[in-house]
Amino acid sequence: MAAYPPVSGKPVFRFAPSPNGRLHLGHALSALTNEALARRFDGRLLLRIEDIDLGRCRPEFADAILADLDWLGIRFELPLRRQFEHFDDYIAALASLQARRLVYPCFCSRQEIRAAVVARETETGRPWPTDPDGAPLYPGSCKELDEAEASRRILAGEPHVLRLDMARAMALAGEDPGYEVFDPKGSRGRAPAQPARWGDVVLARKDVPTSYHLAVVVDDALQGVTHVVRGKDLEAATDIHVVLQRLLGLPTPLYHFHKLLIDEDGRKLAKSRSSESLAELRERGVSAAIIRQGLGFD
Ligand code: GLU
Predict the structure, then answer these.
(1) Which atom of ligand 1 has the smallest separation from the CA of 230?
(2) pLDDT computed for residue 6 by the predictor
(3) CA 153 – ligand 1 centroid, Å
(4) Pocket of ligand 1 from Cβ distances under 6 Å
(5) Pocket test for ligand 1, best of 27, 52, 216, 225 (most atoms within 8 A of CB)
(6) CA–centroid distance, residue 17 to ligand 1 (Å)
(7) Could you report the per-residue pLDDT of 127-181, keeping only the tens digit for each?
(8) Ligand 1 atom 10: the closest Cα is on which residue?
(9) 11, 56, 61, 207, 241 from 27: Cα distances, Å
């Protein structure tokens, strides 16, 4: 794994979009908040392209992100980091977790997980718990597999993910790893973390040797990020990141979660609902200055 930079010197901020669509105003808010805070705290501003999702990410979207950010007038320090080019770093982190039996292979399909959840609900007469994103917690079927059986299936080329054994992880990381949050004025507070509510999360997908959670933690450390500024929609997931930082011996940055922009129906802007992109706004004649002002930046 590449060497981690020293945690000293200037504060380091980053904007980390995924190139699975065009940027919209929600992304502009996130990028501009990072830019404003980096300036306020005399920090550095980095860019990371989170392109591990081979099915949804496209190089042309990554190029468009760079063009949109340039148009908004935000300058990032080079080089930018593209996750797709750093699978070795995630493999090294996984190996370190594997060596301590903190991850296990899971061969379940989505349907098998759904069926196991229904079976548990019928058995107990109670709804099966869901994670903060509303997905059912992994019911644990593959956790019971013995090692020889799991190895045989891996060698036979059966597709599988790697899951974090959350109970074991928490026993090592401490029940409430907690983390520090900061606000734009610079004051700090402590936030509790409740990683157990996520269950045995996926740390390596079937097609790539990482997941969002693992990559974000490894990259923030490798890029020397000291201040993570992201939307409130990622606040709950930070619990997982803090546990992973503990397990991998990585520093925990300070966090700030900014508000989300919502559409007329009260839902957060999302590429998946084709919220109007910055490119479309630009084509309609909206200037970057108007967007900056409209979002509260000058
Ligand atoms: N790539 C994530 C997204 O576009 C953000 C990652 C992060 O801030 O940790 O939603």
Answers:
(1) 8
(2) 59
(3) 33
(4) 16-18, 50, 216, 230, 234
(5) 216
(6) 5
(7) 999 999 999 999 988 999 999 999 999 999 999 999 999 999 999 987 677 999 9
(8) 17
(9) 21, 17, 14, 27, 21
Of 96, 89, 101, residue with least CA distance to 215: 89
Give ranges for CATH 3.40.50.620 in the chain.
Answer: 6-85+262-298, 92-105+161-251
Predicted model pTM = 0.94
Residue located nearest, by CA, to atom 8 of ligand 1: 230
Q: What is the CATH number of domain 92-105+161-251?
A: 3.40.50.620
Nearest CA residue ID for atom 2, ligand 1: 17
Which CATH code is given to the segment(s) 6-85+262-298?
3.40.50.620
203-255 pLDDT, tens digit each: 999 999 999 999 999 999 999 999 999 999 999 999 999 999 999 999 999 99
- Return the ligand 1 atom nearest residue 228 CA: 8
